[in-house]
Amino acid sequence: MSLRLRLTFFYVLFLGLVMAALAFALHLGVRASLYRALDASLQDALALAQGLINQEDHTAHLGEGEAGGWPPDLALFLFQEGRLVDRKGVNLPPPPAQAGCWSRGEVRYCGIRLEQGFLVAARSAEWVEAASDRLDRLLEVALPLALLLSFGAGYWLAGQALAPLDALTLKALELSERPDPKARLPEPRSRDELHRLARAQNRLLSALEAHLEKERRFLQNAAHELRTPLAALVGRLEQALEQDPPARRPLERAREASIDLWHLVERLLLLARAERMGAKEPVDFGAVVLEALEEVETRGKALELDLPHAPCPLKGDPILLKAAVRNLLDNAFKFARSRVRVGLRCQNGILLEVADDGPGVPPGEEERIFEAFHQASPAHRSQGSGLGLALVRRVAELHGGRAVYKMRGEGALFLLELPGEASGAWP
């Protein structure tokens, strides 16, 4: 259940309890008010009836009042020495001889003490009960309707109150899918709890950005510092290979290790460049693929090409795009047994397919091979630094695309999907 719905239910539950208590108090108050009005009318009738009491032969009885002076539903009872000696008005059950006001059934009685005994007035209380019942029926209809309207209004108000929180959530999800160290959460204008939450999250993001920037500078500086001595080391090893043939095999291994280190440094530099990629420029991706093919080492493997004749325009960083394509090609030629197939499609976005007939990727490693420094099991694709495919995926994400691995019966198939210039962002 969503927070919005829970808040609405709690609000309606609390409002329902309050309204039920108010309705019960209203029922009791109206009922008491009606009985007070009825008792007042009976007291007035008793005050008028006292002047009608006559005594003849030491026996009290009610005289005849004015024709229009009695309500049609009023009854008067005169008691002397505990006995009913006279009565007037409508036929109602005789009450006991006592003072005060009380109810018996649906009849209301009020009595006063006289010198001769007691005088009691009575009227039917059916209209009080009827009015109370009408009020109860009205409340039975009004309360559920009011709660229903309150639920709708409360749900709308909760939505309005939580709208800034929804905006924060959507922005956070967007940042999780397409991380941007410089992006921040929207801060509500109101200086409330959500504003403080957004401000705290933005401060956290700023601290993380500073930390990442520090790590990027360290990575870049370390790569720059390593590139020069590695280049010198490779050059000296090549000179040693020319001058000292007897030690050729150990020197060749040292040269290969130096070249691997050099490639590692180059990829670290490219990763640092990817994290601070600047403005994009128009690029023909078909030309980028051809340039990468010219530079890659085929290792004696056959190459099958399926490239379009028309350009494949997009906006991006040509150095990073070329590095991503070259890493895919290096990966394919490294693990292929005999052939590599490269296909490019430029309709509804750009799709580069690089397939080889090598051992493929073991089950469960399909996503982890794109993690930096991760290597598959030794029986499969275990050689290299583990940065090539990580660079490919990062470059694809920075250009609004994606890099994926597809299962095949034999070999590996890597797809690089990018948005074309006319197609917009990749869905």
TrEMBL record:
The keyword Translocase does not apply. The keyword Kinase applies. SMART domains: HATPase_c, HisKA. One of its GO terms (cellular component) is membrane. GO terms for molecular function: phosphorelay sensor kinase activity. It is an enzyme of class 2 (transferase). It catalyses: ATP + protein L-histidine = ADP + protein N-phospho-L-histidine. InterPro entries: HAMP_dom, HATPase_C_sf, HATPase_dom, His_kinase_dom, HisK_dim/P_dom, HisK_dim/P_sf, Sig_transdc_His_kin-like_C, TCS_sensor_his_kinase. Residues 221-422 form the Histidine kinase domain. It is found in: Membrane. Residues 159-213 form the HAMP domain. Keywords: Kinase, Membrane, Phosphoprotein, Transferase, Transmembrane, Transmembrane helix, Two-component regulatory system. Its EC number is 2.7.13.3. Pfam families: HATPase_c (PF02518), HisKA (PF00512). This is histidine kinase. It comes from Thermus scotoductus.
